[in-house]
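Lab meeting, item 3. Inverse folding demo.
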């Protein structure tokens, strides 16, 4: 029965699914894709991949992960591992398409539009990321969304480590400013409830 295989794998931990996948069990790996596909595509979209491109790179990342599943040691989460693979594949695609040069050559002084002051508006991460320059968004997403270290991001982007750290720092500062309430009332209210 097709349903019994799915339910058998649906109850297993990612590490167990990886072990089954390493033996060639495609349904176990299918469960990993079902669990983490959306998160991988989300990281790619935050890095700048649009629609079908994010889907294509995510698919390539999962194919690569399946081919290399024996290399997964369980030292981190499977989700973090496949996100790193996806981020690296996307960067290779950018380099191949010569888009990366345009992103990294972007002027540091370029400031995005100032955030709206509507305290009642629900601001999500996707909207907040729009205040970052393309390079800042790429660096922040690689380090926090895909789980790469600053050193790994610097190597992948072929940028000096200090430059990546600067982009991440500036990006995080902009995100904090964008996501912080204007009058601080929400934060004060939370402190009072603790």
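The presenter then showed the designed sequence:
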């Amino acid at each position: 029965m097709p349903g019994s295989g799915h339910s058998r794998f649906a109850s297993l931990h990612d590490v167990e699914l990886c072990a089954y996948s390493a033996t060639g069990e495609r349904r176990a790996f299918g469960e990993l894709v079902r669990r983490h596909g959306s998160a991988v595509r989300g990281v790619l979209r935050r890095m700048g991949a649009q629609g079908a491109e994010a889907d294509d790179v995510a698919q390539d990342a999962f194919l690569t992960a399946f081919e290399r599943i024996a290399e997964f040691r369980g030292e981190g989460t499977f989700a973090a591992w496949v996100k790193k693979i996806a981020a690296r594949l996307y960067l290779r695609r950018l380099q191949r398409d010569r888009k990366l040069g345009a992103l990294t050559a972007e002027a540091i002084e370029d400031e995005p539009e100032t955030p709206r002051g509507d305290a009642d508006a629900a601001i999500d991460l996707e909207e907040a990321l729009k205040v970052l320059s393309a390079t800042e968004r790429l660096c922040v997403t690689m380090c926090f969304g895909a789980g790469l270290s600053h050193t790994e991001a610097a190597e992948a982007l072929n940028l000096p480590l200090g430059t990546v750290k600067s982009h991440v720092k500036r990006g995080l500062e902009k995100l904090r400013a964008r996501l912080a309430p204007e009058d601080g009332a929400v934060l004060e209210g939370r402190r009072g409830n603790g």
